[in-house]
Structure formats: structure tokens, C-alpha cells
Design goal:
Blueprint lengths: L17 E4 L5 H10 L4 E4 L3 H9 L3 E2 L3 H5 L4 E4 L4 H9 L1 H6 L5 E4 L5 H13 L3 E4 L2 E2 L1 H7 L2 E6 L2 H11 L3 E7 L3 H30 L3 H8 L7 H11 L10 H17 L5 H16 L8 H8 L8
Helix pairs in contact: 1-7, 9-11, 9-12, 9-14, 12-13
């Protein structure tokens, strides 16, 4: 049974509504985009505070994923990983609520091979699946300017494309699982960029260079990247370390990408080395550490300057 809050439209069971499961740091602003666009949306989350926040944004809420899914034409998932996605969709109450003709859109950072296997299981029940992970962080989720990497069959993607466009710019990546593959590979590259950028800037600072000045020069040169143009200037130099994307989530995506490379017979040696460094940082930093804190961790673990 749905919980209803003041200002929230009750839409459970309405034909054609969207069920949005996972109202966390990314899911809440994304689901809110649908509400602002007038899309009947029922949100669900294991956290009461998350459900209350969605109700305050004008959304309808359900106290379980099964209640949100009941009668939905589209089910959007924004969950931590493949294991949680499989657990939610595999729950008997949710499986019973998924009617033939429903389209499931997994916007989580899931494992490509497991996504393909899950799509096959859903297809046997007459349920279509699209994978559509995103990049851009909380700030772009709030403004609706995410990059959405979309995998799936053309007809399935076409059905949900108007919804996905509410979140940002769509990039077709190929068949089912391809979006999750691109997302993982992108984050492996992003994390490796941030790691080497941090090492270089810390070395430059020890040499006596001003990191802000180095960034200005690099960003007009061939060494620039998202880390030099965005992460270091916005989150590292000011010391806020609050990009909104957790270090452990980044590490999870890196591991997915390295495993993918191994599966296709092309091991990622540099990627594996980067994973090892990020894993050590994850062991020592708080559980909720932002991924940009890798720069601070490197600084704190740097050996002392060599004697003159």
C-alpha cells in the first residue's frame, strides 16, 4: 500500500505510470525531474527519509518496490549494483507485479554480463529491459544535464526515450548491457585520470609550483581532462571534496571495467594498477568518502621530501 504525503499525487495502480525505485543522491533529483515534467511517478526507497523527500518534491510514494511497480508501464531502477537490482526484481512480490509489456530501465552502475542475463530472464516473462546508466553527478542530475548511455533493442529504447530525455542527453551505445559497459569503462578512465592528475600536481607543488597555475596551463594544453578542468578546481583545491560521487562507488565501477577487459581477453594492466591504489585508499578512508578524496589520501601518504 502506498504512503501518501501532503502535496503528493497518488498514482499507484494508474495505467502507464512510472515506478522509480531508488531515491538516493542521484535517484531523488532524477525522479523529481519526471514529477516536474508532469509524468505520473511513484517512487520507492528503503529509506523513509528518501521517500519523504520525494513526497516533498511532489511525487507519490509507495512503501515497497512491489507497490510502486504494480500497474506501472515503466520501471526505472537507480540502485547501488547488480546484486541489489537482481534482489529487487527477483523478489516474489515484485516479480508478480511486473506485468507483460512493462519496460524495466536499469540506470544503476551494473555489471554488463549480469544485465544481459537479467534481460533474458525478464524477456521470458514478457518484460523488456533497457540499460541506461548516467554520468555527470548530482549537480547535473538536479539540472537534467546528465549523459545517459542507452543500451537495448531499438523498439524498447524508443518506448522510454521521452522519459530518458528528461534526465539529459542520450547516447545510444548498442544492445542490452552496452550502456553499463560504457559507464564502467568511462569511470575507469575517469578514475585513472584523477589518480595521475593528483600525482602530477602534488609533484609539481613539491617542486614549488602553484597547483592553480599549473591547472590553468594544463587546461590550455594536451594534458587536460575532466579531472583538471572540473574535479581539481572545484573539489580538491578548495578542500571541499564533495562532488557527490562516493569513492567506493567509483572503485566498484573500476572493478567492473577491469573484469570486462579480462572477459574479452584484453587485460587492463594500468587499470588493474589503478584499482589497487584506489582499493588501498578505500580501506583507509571513511565509508562515505567522496571519490575526489583520493587526492587528499595521496598527499597524506606521500613520502617525505628527499634530503637536499
Amino acid at each position: 500500500m502506498s504512503e501518501t504525503h501532503e502535496g503528493a499525487e497518488r498514482t499507484e495502480g494508474a495505467a502507464g505510470h512510472v515506478a522509480f525505485v531508488g531515491l538516493g543522491r542521484m535517484g531523488l533529483p532524477m525522479a523529481s525531474q519526471l514529477v516536474r515534467a508532469g509524468v505520473p511517478t511513484v517512487g520507492s526507497d528503503v529509506g523513509h527519509a528518501a521517500r519523504d523527500a520525494f513526497a516533498a518534491a511532489g511525487g507519490a510514494v509507495a512503501d515497497s518496490a512491489a507497490a510502486a511497480v504494480a500497474g506501472a508501464a515503466t520501471v526505472i531502477l537507480m540502485l547501488p549494483d547488480s546484486g541489489v537490482v537482481e534482489s529487487v526484481l527477483g523478489a516474489p512480490q515484485v516479480a508478480a507485479a511486473l506485468r507483460p509489456g512493462t519496460t524495466v530501465v536499469d540506470m544503476s552502475s551494473s555489471e554488463p554480463a549480469r544485465t544481459r542475463a537479467l534481460a533474458g530472464q525478464l524477456a521470458a516473462a514478457g518484460v523488456a529491459m533497457v540499460d541506461a546508466p548516467v554520468s555527470g553527478g548530482v549537480a547535473r542530475a538536479v539540472t537534467g544535464e546528465l549523459a545517459v548511455m542507452v543500451g537495448g533493442q531499438d523498439a524498447d529504447v524508443a518506448r522510454v526515450e521521452p522519459l530518458l530525455k528528461r534526465f539529459g542527453t542520450l547516447f545510444r551505445s548498442g544492445g542490452i548491457g552496452s550502456g553499463h559497459a560504457v559507464k564502467a569503462l568511462n569511470n575507469l578512465m575517469s578514475a585513472t585520470h584523477l589518480l595521475v592528475t593528483s600525482e602530477a600536481l602534488l609533484a609539481g607543488r613539491r617542486f614549488g609550483l602553484d597547483p592553480a597555475r599549473v591547472l590553468e596551463i594544463v587546461n590550455a594544453s594536451s594534458g587536460r581532462s575532466g579531472s583538471t578542468e572540473n574535479k581539481w578546481p572545484r573539489f580538491v583545491l578548495p578542500g571541499s571534496y564533495d562532488s557527490g560521487f562516493g569513492l567506493r562507488l567509483m572503485l566498484k565501477d573500476m572493478r567492473i571495467a577491469v573484469a570486462l577487459a579480462e572477459q574479452v581477453g584484453l587485460p587492463s594492466r594500468l587499470g588493474a594498477d589503478a584499482v589497487a591504489v584506489w582499493a588501498r585508499a578505500a580501506e583507509e578512508l571513511p565509508a562515505d568518502a567522496d571519490h575526489t578524496e583520493i587526492a587528499r589520501w595521496l598527499d597524506e601518504h606521500a613520502p617525505p621530501p628527499a634530503a637536499a
